[in-house]
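User: Sorry, what's this?
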Amino acid sequence: SEEWLKNAIDEGCIKSYDYSEFSVHKSIGRGGFGTVYKAKWKDYGLTIALKRLNIISMEEKTIQSFVKELKNLQKVCEHPNIIEFYGVTRG
């Protein structure tokens, strides 16, 4: 699962961004995968939702569910009524 993510980044399927590109403002929600923050993407001036995963406390089944969510989101993220997935960051 975490290896799938590393492979997807290495193969160019998912973009990876440096955490310093974002300034986090406040927590706006919490869910099964982690906490969502309102953040500013400095280089683009965009206000975004940044999801921080609780990988350490995640069970393998939960990580697999998140990977499935990412794969499904990539299939439909071009639709105007669905949030856009830009990539991942480590921080």
Observations:
- DSSP finds two helices and five strands in the chain.
- Residues 2-90 form a domain with the Phosphorylase Kinase; domain 1 fold (CATH 3.30.200.20).
